[in-house]
Amino acid sequence: MTMTSIKTVLATASMALCLAGCTGSGQNNVYDITDYGAVAGDSVDNAQAIQKAIAECSANGGGTVVVPAGKSFMAGPFHLASYVELRLEPNSRILANPDESVYTESAFGDNRGEGMMWISGRDLTQVSITGTGTLDGNGVAFMGAELDDSYELKPVTDFDPRPHLLTLINVDRTVIRDITIRNSAYWTVHLIGCYDATIDGISLLNNLKIRNGDGIDLDHSRKVRITGCLIESGDDCICLKNRREWEQYGPCEDIVVTNCIMTSRSCAVKIGSENMDSIDNVLFDNCIIKDSNRGIGIQNRDEGTVTNVTFANMHVDCHLYSDVWWGKSEPIYVTSYPRAVGNHKDAGWRFPKGATEGKCGEVSDIRFINISCISENGVFIGCDTPGKVRGLEFDNVDLKLISRTDFPKGVYDKRPCVGEGFVNDDIYGFYIDNASDIDIDRCTLTWGAPSLAKQGGFSTQLNARRVKIKNEEIRIESNK
């Protein structure tokens, strides 16, 4: 080989090594947002740069848009795109722009009274958000004054500028994995009409004083798996529903939630309250609910139905919070009551078009298996007419009821409902009102210490039918 040939070979090899080590725009289908003008820090809105990277990635057939490690980027609203993975590298962050005026796209279509969108996508295929970085909703920036139990909400009329952190509408095949999501000003992860979605191993850490700060809302979505997540939120941690604004997307069904740890000031696991279609074929298994207000709640307040739901192998730890939050420390709560008339923000969306009052649908075939609970209140089961809640099974449910706070005891919370929102009575292991076909087997009630002042008994039944209780046990612990 001549000297000229050797030089040519070395030059070619050197160029190849350089190209391999470079991270230029679109190389190997990887798109670094800094190559599109993104600047780290909190003084520049990087939404346009991020949007350019996403658009080029999708236009070229797909790939990965990278938020580089160790850097934080402030951004206003931007849209995801088909076949794009947004990857947040270690110690990276995208922080929501605190300027309310940049949020103009409603999270509920024509209903502009319940928040705008920050990160969103609609009518897409194969969308992923991965990595070990953070999406930060900058939630406190959108709040009013801090109170003892919450933040004040700024006054609104029919327009609420608070941004929902992530909203995906009609997406086929979604993956959200490993990231940290924190500090949402409103709902955090909202999947609407989505099919085949996986949420795996994320940490969702909201400020527990922010109202309406739901964790994950599955709305008219199907074939969804949520696994191995840590969720802390002021409002519901995981909520299944069918909002009226999105009725074209059909039922919410075939949902599996496993191995999650949840804390909520409202209800950690909730089905409802918005449900104008059907919620069916749902499994929650191997989960821990800790330091929450209400534990597991089915709160049907619209004409839709809830059927075939199983809760198994769960630990539920509850105690009372202030009336700002719905719930009265009920570890398990299964109800169907007509919805109360809405407020100024509802914009006519709470009831069917033209209706001035609502109806509530049937809740049936619900199973609670191997559930251990410690709380300041018992299980509440209720509905407006006999048998609307029916076919409930409680197998090996262990209730330990103790006094843990100074809030008033002996109250059950029916909100939002027509008429009186609270029931005042003694505390029972199972309070059953109007429901039918309830099987309670191998369940234990322990009156723990420090003891509750308004102790009732194992159960009370008001106009209930076909309630079967067997192999029950009552225990009393000493206050010493």
Q: Ends: how far apart?
A: 94 Å
Percent helix, as a range, is under 10%
CATH T-level topology: Pectate Lyase C-like
Give the count of structural domains.
1
Shape type: elongated
Largest sheet: 34 strands, mixed
Low-confidence stretches: 6-23
Strand count: 36
| Mean pLDDT over the residues | 94
CATH architecture: 3 Solenoid
Any idea what the CATH superfamily is called? Single-stranded right-handed beta-helix, Pectin lyase-like
Measured on Cα atoms, how large is the radius of gyration? Answer: 25 Å
**DSSP strand content:** over 45%
What structural class do helix, strand and pairing data support? mainly beta
State the CATH class: Mainly Beta
User: Helical stretch count?
Assistant: 2
Give a quick set of tags describing it:
480 residues, mainly beta, Pectate Lyase C-like, 34-stranded mixed beta sheet, two-stranded antiparallel ribbon, 2 helices, 36 strands
Describe this structure in words.
By secondary structure, the chain is mainly β. The chain has a single domain, classed as Single-stranded right-handed beta-helix, Pectin lyase-like (Pectate Lyase C-like). It is 7% helix and 47% strand. It is built from two helices and 36 strands. The chain has helices at residues 3-21, 47-59; strands at residues 30-32, 63-67, 72-75, 78-79, 84-88, 93-96, 106-108, 111-131, 134-136, 163-177, 180-182, 189-192, 195-200, 203-205, 216-219, 222-227, 230-233, 238-242, 252-258, 261-264, 267-275, 278-292, 294-300, 305-318, 332-336, 363-375, 379-383, 389-401, 411-413, 422-424, 430-433, 436-441, 444-447, 459-462, 465-470, 473-476. The strands form two sheets. It has a 34-stranded mixed beta sheet that branches. The protein has a two-stranded antiparallel ribbon with strand order 29-30. The longest helix is centred in the first third of the chain and has 19 residues, at 3-21. It starts with a helix and ends with a strand. The relative contact order is 0.07. Residues 6-23 have low confidence and may be disordered.
